[in-house]
Automatic annotation (TrEMBL):
Natural source organism: Ottowia pentelensis
SUPFAM superfamilies assigned: FAD/NAD(P)-binding domain
Record lineage: Bacteria, Pseudomonadati, Pseudomonadota, Betaproteobacteria, Burkholderiales
PANTHER family the UniProt entry points to: 3-(3-HYDROXY-PHENYL)PROPIONATE/3-HYDROXYCINNAMIC ACID HYDROXYLASE, BLR0106 PROTEIN
Protein name: FAD-dependent monooxygenase
Assigned keywords, A-Z: Monooxygenase, NAD, Oxidoreductase
Keyword DNA-binding included in the entry's annotation: no
């Protein structure tokens, strides 16, 4: 089978790896518009649960990537300078470019061809392919040029975010919230090497406007945020890698393929960064599509239909949770001033509706007990 993949991100690379090992005779080419040695962003984070999925679905790749990751066993919520550590939340992180570079080497050893600095702008350029995989990100031109065929809907959310980095090596995955005179500022930050961290800044649209970010350059905005998060940064700078203010797009596709063209990863459905599952979801897409081809003996129409059947139930649960988490952040201007540090950390843990009080008690008994002391009525709730 001749397979052309648009985009050398985790979804396309993982699918290429799985399919080449499934059948070495597959002719697989990945077309990547960027250079081999550069990418946007900083680190990629995985929960322990996500790593467990990777270990189960592709232990060879898990063993290959795991030694290159930073890891920690808890989460920290910083609420106006008060830190609340939360146990039972293991994570690992790796630099995005390092992860991609390792995946490039991995698939090339298997016989996959990657064509860097090659921009595909029309599906006609891939004439003769048995399968065209559009794994070219949230702004996928394949999806946007075929919105009717994919039944695409897009909801641009109001919060502004800027994906930055810092030389401050944070001890844990942390979320820092600070009230300022113009509104609440949030930073999502974690180290991905011993000397580098991701530092993602998020504010509501109202805070963004009141602060005057619409009149600042991106560099001026980062210098302003260094002052807001001076406690967390400890004198370290906020760094840019094509960093600019963006709005998150909630994208849904009623159909996942047409003809021999299929969407995967962020092109199919971005997952809000607040649950740290975007890369995991992209790679699980790859696993499901490969399994669909295995089940259907490389029957493309049957495999593409089966892909949606296999992937939809689990994917939809995570996507819905990500959207509930996203909307929680859209309320942070109201939440941070009205809750103390324990209440806020507890609210964060239960924000998606997937974690009950009993589950909080199981994950972190100290946080549950602290919240119970302030809100004893929670003990009367069903399932508590």
């Amino acid at each position: 089978m001749k397979i052309d993949i648009i985009g050398a991100g985790p979804a396309g690379l993982h699918f290429a790896s799985l399919m080449k090992r499934l059948n070495p005779r597959h002719e697989i080419t990945i077309h990547e518009r960027g250079p081999r040695s550069a990418t946007w962003g900083f680190g990629v984070v995985f929960s322990d649960q996500a790593l467990d999925f990777l270990r189960t679905d592709d232990n060879e790749l898990f063993e290959y990537l795991r030694p290159h990751m930073e890891s920690w066993s808890d989460l920290t919520i910083n609420h106006n300078g008060t830190s609340v550590p939360i146990a039972g939340n293991g994570y690992a992180a790796i630099g995005r470019l390092q992860m991609l570079s390792l995946l490039y080497q991995h698939v090339e050893r298997l016989g996959v061809t990657i064509r860097f600095d090659t921009e595909i702008t029309s599906l006609a350029q891939l004439k003769g392919a048995d399968l065209i995989l559009a794994a070219n990100g949230a702004s996928s031109w394949v999806r946007e040029e075929n919105r009717d065929k994919f039944a695409t809907t897009t909801d641009i959310r109001p919060n502004k975010f800027m994906w930055c980095g810092s030389t401050m090596p944070f001890d844990t995955l942390s979320l820092s919230f600070h009230e300022t005179g113009t509104g609440v500022f949030c930073a999502h930050h974690y180290r991905y090497t011993p000397a580098m961290s991701t530092f993602l800044i998020e504010v509501t649209d109202e805070t963004w406007k009141r602060t005057g970010f619409d009149r600042m350059s991106n560099d001026e905005a980062m210098r302003h945020c260094e002052k807001v998060f001076a406690r967390e940064l400890g004198g370290h700078p906020i760094l840019s890698n094509n960093s600019y203010w963006r709005n998150f797009p909630v994208i849904w596709n009623g159909r996942w393929h047409f003809d021999n063209v299929v969407l995967m990863g962020d092109a199919l459905r971005p997952a809000h960064f607040s649950i740290g599952s975007g890369t995991r979801m992209a790679m699980l897409d790859a696993v499901a599509l490969c399994n669909a081809f295995r089940e259907t003996d490389d029957d493309v129409p049957a495999a593409l239909a089966r892909f949606r059947e296999l992937r939809m139930p689990v994917m939809k649960k995570i996507w819905d949770a990500a959207n509930r988490s996203m909307r929680w952040y859209e309320e942070m201007d109201k939440l941070v001033p009205t809750q103390n540090a324990i209440e806020f950390a507890y609210d964060y843990m239960t924000r998606t509706g997937r974690i009950s009080h009993a589950k909080v008690r199981e994950i972190d008994p100290r946080l549950a007990a602290a919240y119970e002391s302030q809100h004893p009525e929670v003990l009367d709730a069903p399932g508590a």
